[in-house]
Amino acid sequence: MKYRALIVAFLALCLGVITACSDGSAVASDRKQLTYDEILGTGIANTCPQISEFTRGTIPIEANKSYSVLDMCLEPQEYFVKEEPKSKRQEAEFIPSKLLTRETTSLEQISGTISVANDGTLTFKEEEGIDFQPITVQMPGGEQHPFFFTIKKLVGSTEPGFTAINSSVDFEGQFNVPSYRGAGFLDPKGRGVYTGYDNAVALPANADNAKLARANVKQTESGTGTISLQVTKVDGESGEIAGVFESIQPSDTDLGARDSVDIKIRGTFYARVAPTA
Description:
Blueprint: H1 2-29, H2 36-39, E1 59-60, E2 66-83, E3 93-96, E4 98-99, E5 107-116, E6 122-130, E7 132-138, E8 144-150, E9 152-157, E10 164-165, E11 170-177, H3 213-216, E12 223-235, E13 240-250, E14 262-275
Antiparallel strand pairs: 1-10, 2-3, 2-5, 2-14, 4-7, 5-6, 6-9, 7-8, 9-11, 11-12, 12-13, 13-14
């Protein structure tokens, strides 16, 4: 009798632990079930929704029709900075870099459309949302590179032959990269695009020096980035898709004062696909 009571107590304890653990993970994976105070300071707000690893469904599509992309979210997880070779025999390579920005790196609430061509080519066009985040990374040597993580005006297409959205879909395309600084920004010497000084006040005699022209003449230049959105999980019932992405885009130029470097970003993405009303 004593052993039976001991075994019953042990099984009850194990069942309670398993239930508590499973409930905790379920709540943590769905931000909508959490309050503001439960999310504050945890970093959960910077993560994208997840789909079960075992989800391998499809979303049927029809030619000459368009579909809405809703609640798209991109969560960057790895950063690389392209370093030029020190000799001609070497090739440029991307160096893993450390993130300096706090938990405000993800893009979310992005919407767009997917159109289907006659040959089965899918084209995704980004329209609006929280589609940019200023981020700074640091290379192993200590050099820091700010950049504007974004997918503004992305137009990405797949190969032809698709009759459904499945785990073989891979959108590849280009997007616009706005200037990291706005036209009203003033540098430490008070120079800007449409406001501030024309040159460094402490060096009036060298105002027209060609070597200082890039630093004096400010420009809000836009760049172009490339991205690959590879779908790996599809939930046909809910219309949810998820996968991984890799993008390459230019860094900040300090309003044209210096050359940009290429930044490679890798991470995960999530979105919902629904027929256009």
